[in-house]
């Protein structure tokens, strides 16, 4: 009896197992057929152009007179063909919207439409620029222009967004297009294989072929001269731009912020760029991505070029272009990506109209105007004493300084502190020593006469207002010397600052 019961249980269990297996197979098979029906067959036949598997591979179409890709494979040819058909309209819009569905829900359909009709220029296609460009294309930006003169190297692969070993030796702009066209074939890519500078700005930042102006420009350049040229051009021509500062020697992603160019700190590239822009009259109005991370024991530092590298030739011969950087910067591969995605995030939200709630920087333009007025008053007192004009008589003295000069001296040269006491309140600028010659320059005669001060940025020091008034009274208008009022350390510090200011004077124009 027990054996019969046992056998029946075994049979039932075996039957159940077989039935479950058959059911599971049927369900999985049905799901597979449904998946094929819903995702592959209809959409491919309706929207995505098919490929001839037997067709020989062809190099993707090149733009702007660039050389063709010599190591193109069959996948490159398929991607290029798909992109050509997609740009011609043979790519179903429903598929594009499905690929961009997450962005569409987040930004709203109206916001995504703005992105899809936008034209963005990315200048610099290395670590930062490549990640930014990739994010822009994946997020739906319809037209992107890449500008870079450089090639992909082996050392690029630790931080570049899309480059592979197969891309080493290829221009960075071609590499980006080669890889991104396989992801977003409907995006229009325009490639400019050249170095950006002030003379080429108007052409490289010019309109798309149908006349569309850039909606945004991304600065991902690591050369200061080119960077300043780009930002000054965009500022003067009212082109929206965001600039990435230095990712080198940085390791803390939580310290990366977006702020105004006038408030960025603790970054050599940011500091140098900010100084140069201020001397050109640009004190604010440009958003930048920068790190507030400070140097510390054990952290990476920018080191000079090793001596053995100099033995290989002149410094200018070691770089890709003359006067371009030749050092290998210490870069943690993750940090350029964070910078690039932060830049892309700003561009995407700005174009689509999504709210940006960055912590506001401290507005200091009124302070600069006040300091400039103090310099004006101080110079007028010196000139009146020189030419013996009464205080109530009109002078009409002009000052050869602008708010950018004031911002540079106060913020960058003197670090927002008095050179005498280190106090950061009620700051002004005043001449350090009496004019060696006349403090007045005259041009013309009579009513057409122009009177201007001879003061230069190399003449001014930063003090509190109380300190400056005492300095005027006892040094500039009195008989006391610097040694009578200040310590030797203070005098040496001032002399060093004035020499530094003299070096930067050449960047004022």
From TrEMBL:
Protein's UniProt name: THIF-type NAD/FAD binding fold domain-containing protein
Any one of the GO CC terms: mitochondrial outer membrane
Organism whose genome encodes this protein: Coniochaeta ligniaria NRRL 30616
Organism domain of life: Eukaryota
Occurrences of domain THIF-type NAD/FAD binding fold (ranges): 102-359
One Pfam family this sequence matches: ThiF
GO terms (BP aspect): cyclic threonylcarbamoyladenosine biosynthetic process
UniProt-annotated stretches for the region Disordered: 34-66
Keyword Hydrolase: no
Keywords tagged on the record: ATP-binding, Ligase, Membrane, Mitochondrion, Mitochondrion outer membrane, Nucleotide-binding, Transmembrane, Transmembrane helix
Its membrane topology: Multi-pass membrane protein
Spans traversing the lipid bilayer: 12-33
């Amino acid at each position: 009896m027990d054996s019969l019961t046992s056998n029946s249980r075994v049979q039932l269990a075996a039957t159940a197992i077989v039935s479950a297996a058959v059911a599971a197979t049927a369900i999985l098979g049905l799901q597979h057929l449904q998946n094929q029906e819903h995702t592959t067959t209809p959409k491919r036949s309706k929207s995505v152009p098919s490929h001839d598997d037997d067709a020989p591979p062809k190099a993707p179409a090149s733009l702007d007179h660039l050389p063709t890709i010599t190591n193109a494979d069959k996948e490159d040819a398929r991607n290029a063909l798909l992109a050509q058909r997609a740009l011609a309209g043979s790519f179903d819009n429903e598929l594009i919207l499905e690929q961009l569905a997450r962005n569409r829900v987040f930004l709203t359909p109206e916001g995504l439409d703005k992105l899809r009709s936008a034209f963005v220029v990315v200048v610099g296609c290395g670590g930062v620029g490549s990640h930014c460009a990739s994010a822009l294309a994946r997020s739906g930006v319809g037209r992107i222009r890449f500008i870079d003169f450089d090639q992909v190297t082996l050392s690029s692969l630790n931080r570049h967004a899309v480059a592979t070993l197969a891309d080493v030796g290829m221009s960075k702009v071609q590499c980006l297009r080669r890889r991104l066209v396989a992801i977003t074939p409907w995006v229009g890519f325009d490639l400019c294989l050249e170095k950006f500078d002030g003379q080429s700005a108007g052409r490289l930042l010019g309109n798309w072929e149908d006349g569309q102006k850039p909606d945004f420009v991304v600065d991902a350049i690591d050369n200061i001269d080119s960077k300043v040229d780009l930002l000054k051009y965009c500022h003067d021509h009212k082109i929206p731009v965001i600039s990435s500062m230095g990712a080198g020697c940085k390791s803390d992603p939580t310290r990366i912020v977006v702020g105004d160019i006038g408030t960025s700190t603790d970054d050599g590239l940011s500091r140098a760029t900010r100084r140069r822009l201020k001397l050109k009259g640009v004190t604010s109005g440009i958003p930048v991505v920068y790190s507030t991370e400070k140097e510390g024991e054990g952290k990476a530092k920018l080191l000079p070029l090793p001596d053995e590298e100099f033995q290989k030739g002149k410094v200018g011969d070691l770089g890709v272009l003359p006067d371009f950087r030749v050092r290998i910067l210490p870069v943690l591969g993750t940090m350029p990506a964070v910078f690039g995605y932060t830049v892309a995030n700003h561009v995407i939200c700005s174009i689509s109209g999504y709210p940006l709630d960055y912590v506001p920087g401290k507005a200091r333009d009124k302070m600069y105007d006040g300091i400039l007025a103090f310099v004006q008053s101080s110079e007028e007192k010196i000139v009146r004493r020189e030419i013996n004009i009464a205080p109530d008589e009109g002078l009409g003295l002009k000052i050869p300084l602008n708010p950018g000069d004031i911002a540079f001296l106060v913020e960058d040269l003197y670090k927002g502190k008095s050179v005498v006491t280190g106090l950061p309140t009620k700051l002004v600028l005043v001449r350090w020593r009496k004019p060696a010659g006349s403090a007045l320059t005259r041009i013309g005669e009579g009513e057409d006469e122009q009177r201007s001060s001879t003061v230069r940025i190399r003449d001014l020091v930063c003090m509190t207002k109380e300190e400056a008034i005492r300095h005027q009274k006892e040094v500039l208008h009195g008989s006391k010397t610097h040694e009578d009022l200040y310590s030797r350390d203070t005098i040496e510090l001032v002399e060093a600052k004035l020499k530094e200011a003299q070096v930067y004077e050449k960047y004022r124009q």
